């Protein structure tokens, strides 16, 4: 997205005796803080279901397992207190026979106010879903739930944020504020199945990285206790951040997979309707623009595959549901390398994007520009190298009516090397979360900078490393002709770099995440970012 170049003006009610050590450990492997209290647990080894109330189905305790044997009923078992608000419930769940009802599924529930008003994390024959009540699906991702197999399901409810884990990995999230409090439960809707090792804690949030605590999302400009960092670099993993919200981002999952070896075939597949994963084999050179349609994953094969000389455009799709991953992208003259306009639910991950810097910064346009109310986007584990106008968020100062309330983007574990401005530059977006990135050699001239918050945008800049950066962040002074933005900075490391200017406060992010200790970020990012590192 072209923009005029100018110089700056400038995050059972008490533990039953005899609960197993495995159940105790489960409280901490879901990413809860060590101080979290256990509210309830039941491993059913006492041969009864005291404390549970049931509705529908046929419930019995046998051999230390709580079983529901009917596949023709909507069945629920509830326990705990109606006053519980922040809660994480985890249980082993084994589907038996799935019935034919459209609402069939088996899972765990939180904030149950009645047998019809609750949140649930549910396994179906083909998906994992977060549901509100029996029939409203808030989020869904493909998953094959084999009958007769145990799965550990974890549902965490913190404020309006809901997060679901399967076997310790976060796979789905949603946001809803209909039910602020309630009991926990086991749900078996038109599905026979079994439950075991139920543990409930008051832990806030979840994290896709086990055994480390989640960062508190509260953000302000006043000093606060720093979150407990992880003690080793977070390895490249699954999706984290804004792209997990509003139903999540799944790309071409569930559709066919095709491999392309020519640019013409790539354009045809990317622009075709329908869900699919497109594997790009080799460096494919083209020109112009490739319009990527909804429900696509575009993934390079190995370390040396990608696209040269063309713009990948994701536009006018809400949701787009697009993933671009493991691609080498370079050499786009006069346009953006990846352009996102009026599109949502996008994950840009493990790509290497580069150009040859010219003396004229207008020779190239943006590397990754996100404009016109783009939303629910995560940019992770990419290398951005040798570029001038790198990543613009919000195309102009006059676009508040379209952009305010949108442009929610997470940048994490990216390496910005010789990217002389806009990494990112943000207008209006809130909260743009920039954490655990490595910035190096952004010092071409006195106007070089890494991050800018303008036009009342709200940025959380957290645990990043800046080395040889002319100016780490602009905010209070604005940038160029734009009005100031808001920026909260915490736990960043600056070496031979200008300051990270702060201003005001920003809204909390609704998702769970773990910020690495800033001392590990450079090593982690340089080892794990870019194509070929997936």
Can you describe what's shown?
By secondary structure, this protein is mostly beta strands. 6% of the residues lie in helices and 41% in strands. The chain folds into two domains: 181 residues, Sandwich (Jelly Rolls), CATH 2.60.120.560; 282 residues, Single-stranded right-handed beta-helix, Pectin lyase-like (Pectate Lyase C-like, 3 Solenoid). The protein is built from four helices and 41 strands. The strands form five sheets. Strands 16, 17, 19, 20, 22, 23, 25, 27, 28, 31, 34, 37 and 40 form a 13-stranded parallel sheet that branches. It is globular and about 75 Å long.
Architecture blueprint of SSEs:
Blueprint: H1 21-29, E1 38-42, E2 53-55, E3 59-62, E4 65-68, E5 74-79, E6 87-98, E7 105-112, E8 119-123, E9 127-132, E10 136-142, E11 151-158, E12 161-166, E13 169-175, E14 183-189, E15 191-201, E16 257-260, H2 263-271, E17 276-280, E18 283-285, E19 289-291, E20 296-300, E21 306-308, E22 311-317, E23 322-325, E24 328-330, E25 338-349, E26 352-354, E27 368-371, E28 375-380, E29 383-389, E30 392-393, H3 400-403, E31 409-412, E32 415-421, E33 425-427, E34 430-435, E35 438-442, E36 451-454, E37 458-462, E38 465-469, E39 473-474, E40 486-490, E41 493-495, H4 518-528
Parallel strand pairs: 16-17, 17-20, 18-21, 19-22, 20-23, 21-24, 22-25, 23-25, 24-26, 25-27, 25-28, 26-29, 28-31, 29-32, 30-33, 31-34, 32-35, 33-36, 34-37, 35-38, 36-39, 37-40, 38-41
Antiparallel strand pairs: 1-15, 2-5, 3-4, 4-15, 5-14, 6-11, 6-15, 7-8, 7-14, 8-9, 9-10, 11-12, 12-13
